[in-house]
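Lab notes, practical 5.
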Amino acid sequence: MEFPELPPLKMHRRSRNPLKNLFFNAFTKTHFISLFNNSHQSCTNRSSISSYCTSLQLTSLRPKSHSPIKKKNAPRKRDKEKLRRYSESLRDCAANRSLNEGKSIHKQIKESDIELDSHLWVSLINFYAKCGCLSVARQVLDEMPQKDVVSWTALISGFVGEGSGTEALQLFREMHEEGIKPNEFTLATVLKACCMSLNVSFGKQLHSEIVKAGFLSDGHVGSALVDLYAKCGELEYAEKVCLFLPEQNPVSWNSLLNGFALVGDDQRALNLFCKMKETEMKFNKYTLCTILKGCTISKNLKAGKLVHGMAIVSGSEHEEYVSCSLVDMYSKCGKSDDALKVFSQIKSPDVVTWSAIISCLEQQGKEEKATEFFSMMMSSGIRPNQFTFTSIITAAKELGDLQYSQSLHACVHKYGFANETLVNNALITMYMKNKSLDDGLRIFNTMNHQDLVSWNAVLSGFHDTESSHGSRIFKEILVNGFKPNIYTFISALRSCVTSEFGKQVHGHVIKENLDSDCYIGTALIDMYVKSKCIQDAEKIVNRMNEIDLFTWTTIISGCAQTNQGEKSILYFNQMNKDGVKPNEFTLAACLRGCSGITSLTNGKKIHSFVIKDGFVNDPFVGSALLDMYGKCGSIDEAEMIFEEMESNDTVLWNTIINQYSQHGYGDKALKVFEIMLTKGISPDGVTFIGILSACSHLGLIKKGREYFHSMSKDYGITPSIDHYALMVDILGRGGKFNEVESFIDEMKLTHSSLILETLLGACKVHGNLELGEKVAEKLFEIEPEVDSNYIMLSNIYASKGMWNEVAKIRAKMSSQGIKKEPGCSWVDLDHGGQTHVFLSQDGSHFQILEIHQKLKELEEKLFSMGYIPNLDYVLHNVSEREKREILSHHSERLALGFSLINKNSNKMVRIFKNLRICGDCHEYMKLVSRIINKDIVIRDAKRFHCFKDGLCSCQDYW
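Output from the prediction step:
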């Protein structure tokens, strides 16, 4: 797949928006009427604060424009009723934000022969301010003949309402310079402006003047002071002001409680709430919501439930505002069921509540449920906001439904959020997760503003790929001046295709002092494991102060995947010592490690953990257990586990089919396959590996052909090189050399080493010298360093007594520095799980004399039964006596002798061998199984041989 070129990505950075809509308007309609009626009342004498205000050096807000008001002569009596109606109409327009209607009224005023009184001037200022036309509101104030505190307060309130706190403070300075004294409403509004602009210094200075002027007893001013200190983090000041107000009120208490809630100090908030109850002050729904906010921020579920109880007792549980806060609290605390119960009782949930419940379901892994609720919200006519879209898009990321994802993208455009960075970041992540990389990159390249989250989202699309785009994107992040965070480094490490680049990222991690972070440590371990650098991964593990479950699982799995099962078990034991409880992935990984080293003893120990921790029915663990018992030669235990599990997991069925096939029970493998189909479980490529292998071991040529062709014809599975190799094995072992050659030519497999090795093995079985020589020569060109190809050709020559040719092959190997892998067998004893290894003709074992004595006893019994060693399997040009000696000291026989003299051995002898068992040893083991009253299981390089009562499970066809 070709990806669009990533340009030198432009940075469209947005300036920070002013804080908007965080505070309620200072003046209701009733307040304004009150202000208008008392506009000429003098304010209480108080000291000047001009010295402090002047020091702010605030610039004037006076606009340079023409007058919007037409000046008139003295008013006439008949105009008073008009003035009143105009004022009322403008106040209604301000309340409804009806800008066009208000402008029309303003036009009527200018065209009439009427002179404005103070009420109408203020109504005009208030109207334009409330409708967001602040510059026009300022023009009206400038043209007002006699500005008073009410008109100034109306304008200041307008700026505060639009989130322009700093500009509101500038207006207050101008008002003070003109000698207008503030009233309690002005001071409350200016304190809100201080809060909005986080100017606590100005607020403190204003506080001192409020105290001197005697306005601290006013409820609005006192509450505004508490709110200012609380929002600015000055909680000690906030608490003092609240507790020492002459007349305490719920508003000031709520402001104080909100301050502690914002910093997550829910315990302090609860304590204050108790004090509030002691004062017999009646708390309201906003009080409960504020406490719930603190519980939500700190995720204190216990306290949240207590507040829920208070809401029930006070009868405010079904108040919409309280219910929405409860939904948010339960959602953030991860209790989706409780959140859903509360949500179901809300008659008309708003977009915030819908967003909270959708986000909760998404975070709890209930993505499909989240999509249902999103559809319900849309059907109810609620317009989604950017947070709704972010949550539902994140849920869609996990669904893997590209069509649904694209429909959400269309909704984003429809509702006008296509330029929202937060939403675009979620969309990029969604597309990258769904492997729709082009769509993700397209969104990224068209964004007006890309932040680090955007880059991280793009980088996430190249996790665990073989593309070099991940390294390029990481470099672009650095070039564009971004400082990578934890998520950047984790994505970069997961995108590494070479250990060299991984080490460069590791260097940046160290430079940023993030190498001790648990998540980055895990990503580093994973990167080194995938690069086969286990020692580097282990160094990271040893340096980590705290290792979590995911990190343990990563290193255990890495060791298992690199055939270091002993280390997997070692780390698993250390994890248990550290008190970390394994999950299903840890257990499965460790079981894979046991399978790799055929450690049945340790495998059984892990099995006990599986039972203890309740993962018996987990299909992932179940398949690992089946695989472990099967590879350790305990097919009966594997079969028993499979029969006890009720699962339609394809991997589980594949595992038992492959194990039956490997143990020589091909008929059982085919029977299980038929049952699998009747249950409606679709087979995959791995299934047919086991089926074709079973046909090969059973010599079922015709049936093998049928299964091979049904893969693509009936199940749409494209055969892999392994399937072709098995088909070559089926035909070759059946002696169908003409057909197999035609098959190889037709499928264009003549240059595949696996195919040629399989064919050479068939030539060895049938002694096909001519074809064997031709195949071997091709293999010597393709993989000249592989010893088994030389050995197989040498064995073909030896079987025909062509000793000169054998000598040439061995000389060729010697000249190229190629050594034959020595025959090696090993056994595990139950006590201590110790492994004993034996080489052919090896005399180093501390019990070798006892082993030889035991084997001599067995041979005497076998000779009495008519056993005659088949010396044709000794492919050396030596005397018959030496050939007998060589056969009697094959590694599998030494392992057998050791198992029999060991008093703690199992009822079943299990031997593992690195090479294929020879024909004479195969016959020998059949006879021994009859006289020792024990089953013998030998796993050679290709399959299992289960010897019992003089017979082998392979039926002498291997």
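Observations recorded by the TA: Residues 80-96 form the longest helix (17 residues). The radius of gyration is 42 Å.
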